[in-house]
Every structure is written in C-alpha cells, then in structure tokens.
Amino acid sequence: MLEADKEPKAGEKAEKPAAEEKKEKNPSSKSQLLSGKAIALLIISLIVGALIGYFSTPGNSTNCIPLFAAGGNEPDTTALKLKLADYVTELLGKEEGYNVQVTSIEPANNSLYLANFTVEKDGQDQQTQVYVTRDGSTMVLGQRNLTVFFLDEPAPVPEPAPVPEPVELTKSDKPTVRLFVWSFCPGGTHGENALKPVVELLGDKIDAKVVFIGPVTTNKADAAYSCFASRGKSVEEGLEECCVAYENIDGETVYSCALHNRKGNMHESYESARQACINKYNPEKFWDYLEAFNANCIGGDVDSCWQEQANKLMIDVAQISECAISAEGIKLLMEDSDLSDQYNISVSPSLVVNGTVYDAGASPTVYKEAICSAFNTPPEECGQDVSAATSSRSSSVTCG
User: Which residues contact 310 (CB under 8 A, 6 or more apart)?
Assistant: First the structure.
C-alpha cells in the first residue's frame, strides 16, 4: 500500500506504486509544460492531450501519493460527476468554451473510481479517463508518471513553459528520423501530422519512420502496468486491461500493449500493428493513411473506419489484416518496442534525429529546422517554407 501521510501539492507529480515501478525514462522530456493560454490554442484533437498529456508529463516525484483515501464517506456519484466536470473545466479555462461532461463513474478497485470524460468544443469531442479516490477528494492523472489534483481546492494555474535548451544534433549526409508515438495519443497524432509535410518536402533525402512505443514484450511485469486502465490492478488483471497476448511467437507468449488500451477495447494495439504493416507493404501510402486515420477514426468505429481509409488509398486490407495479427506484425512492433527502450522513450511524441532526442515541441517548422540542422550539407529544400495539413503551432502536449 502507498503512503498517505505525506501529500504532494495539487498538480504535483507523484511516485507510482512500487508494483508498477520501472526505470525512469527520457529525462529530457521533463521540461514539457503548458501555460494556461497555450491549452486554448491547441486544436480540438489535442484537448484530451491537455489532460492526459500535459498533466502527466514527467516531473520531479514526491515520495508518496494519497491513492488510498484515509476515512471519509464515498460521495454520491451524480454529485461527483458534476464536481469533476467543474474542476476539469476550470483546469482547461472556463473562458475557452470547453464543454466537459463525465459520462460514467465506476469502481476501479477498493480505493479508486474510474471516471470517463467527454470534452467538447466547437462541435468536436474527445474522450479520456481519470481516476478519483473513493472519498471524492483527489483526482489522479497519468500512467507511468502520476499527477494528483485535490478537488476541494482551487485548480492550480499551469506554470509557463520553460525555453528548451538548444540540442546539438549529430550531422550526416542522410539524417535518420524516428518519431515515437502511441497511435491513439493526441500529442502523438499531432506529431505525425506535423512530420508529414516535412517528409513530403525532404523526400528520400531523409530516412523517416514512425515508431510505436508499446511495450510489446514477453515480460509480464513490464506489460501489466503499461496502460491507464491497469491502475491499482494486479499483474494478471493489468495484462487483461493493457495487452493482447500472442502465443507461440518463437516459442514464447508476447504481450502487445499500449497506453490507451482497456479490457474489451484493444484498438490501439491492433491499429499500431496495422500501421506498422502498412509502412512495410505500402510505405508510399503510409503518411496519407496516417493523416486519414487520425482525422476520421480515433474515437469512432475503428474496425470499419481503418478499412474505409485503406480502401480509399487502394491498400490491400486483407494483407494488412493478416500481417497485423500474425508473428510478422508482432515482430515489427517488438522491434519498435526495443528501439523505444534503447532510447529510453516513454513520452509520445518523441522525435529522435541521428540518435539524439530532440525536445522542442511539435510543429512542421520545428521538425524541419531540427532535421535540416542534422545534414552535413542541407539541401535546398531546407530553405523552403513547409506547408502543413495541421496547425503550424508548436505543441508540448504529450502522453506518457
């Protein structure tokens, strides 16, 4: 059980349970914070990221977290829904016009409720989840890196984003570019949309690839606590919540996991495998597929939507489906997961150029400047403006 006698300040990062403890990853990502106004500037696809991304960005940990409520009566869930909605609306900024609704509250374990949210603005909505102590006093955000908010206190004002320190990239004739994401992470999809016009501009002058963080592993402990829904669960329960189990992959059981999976809904793992297979068999159509999927499928009927987008691009749906659920697709994800571990990646999106993590926000311009700085001799395209099918603003929203 976690200690409850020392409480972090509202909005402060807290240490995860010992059963879920893994090595700390990607210290360079710890500077990512959003100002209150910056949240309002994000496109609607990033609203959820403002909750599960910014408020779960890695930071300095305290020694404990009050996950286990000390005394008190459980609140009426109807009243708690209103309390949570009001608090999250205040976090996002009342003047920004967000419509926050808590659609359901259900027991997660003896200490926590799981609350499902819909955040709507300008006719578009996104869904996310948070955990709340049974006494209704504390909201917990994040998975690998936790942040707590005390619901009976005023919502904290986010700190201004610090200016990232310059990063010196290794130079090469053909830079290697790797964008690490979870495929359903709002920050990750924004990063993909931001990198797409840069890839189109620079073409085969760079070696660019999207890498899926996973984990996809034979290690049960690593797999069990890899998604939001595993909070407070046992290893076996966590595996059911987070992962698809594939037996007899080279004689072993491999667990394909993703941050936004939950029991009965493993769409993120399945889609990551499909995207890896599309990149293998249809690399020339991969970025167009990503753009179409991100715009139309997340939060909807993923099973039919991905096929619709693939058919429009004349991608062989049967081939991709077979690849994604076979050892072929799982091994592609295992390679990505191993690469994520190699670079200590646990934040989506994370850009790695010539082996160096580049942490300065996500926009077409930022990405182009980073990649062009890694050429021995920058091509003439580096002097051109990069067009974008996404917002030109740099985003610090992440998942992790």
Answer: 278, 289, 316, 317, 320
First to last CA, the chain: 23
Closest CA to 109 of 68, 61, 138: 68
Distance of CA 242 to the CA centre of its chain: 14
The residue count for the chain: 400
Residue of 355, 221, 334 whose CA lies nearest to 276:
334
Compute the half-sphere exposure of residue 164: CA atoms within 13 Å on the CB side of its CA: 21
Contacts of 297 (CB under 8 A, 6+ apart): 305, 306, 309
The answer to whether the beta carbons of residues 160 and 319 sit under 8 Å apart is no
* Burial per residue of 313-323, b for 16 or more beta-carbon CB atoms within 10 angstroms, e otherwise: eebeeeebbeb
Question: Strands (DSSP E) along 77-220, which ranges?
Answer: 99-107, 112-121, 124-133, 138-141, 146-150, 176-181, 207-212, 216-217
Phi, psi torsion values for 191, nearest 5 degrees: -60, -40
**pTM (2 decimals)?**
0.67
Higher pLDDT, 88 or 23: 88
Q: What's the pLDDT tens digit per position in 114-129?
A: 888 887 766 656 667 7
pLDDT at 62: 27
Q: What is the pLDDT of residue 68?
A: 33
Query: What domains are there in the chain, each with its CATH number?
Result: 13-150 (no CATH), 176-383 (3.40.30.10)
- pLDDT tens-digit map of 203-257: 999 999 999 999 999 999 999 988 878 877 899 999 999 999 999 899 999 999 9
Instruction: Determine the pLDDT at residue 214.
Output: 93
Find the Cα–Cα–Cα–Cα dihedral 80, 129, 263, 345, rounded to 10°.
-150
Task: From residue 309, give the alpha-carbon distance in Å to each of 188, 313, 315.
Answer: 19, 7, 9
Taking CA atoms, 87 is separated from 40, 106, 154, 215, 339, in Å, by 16, 19, 8, 32, 38
Q: To which residue do tokens 């072993």 refer?
A: 252
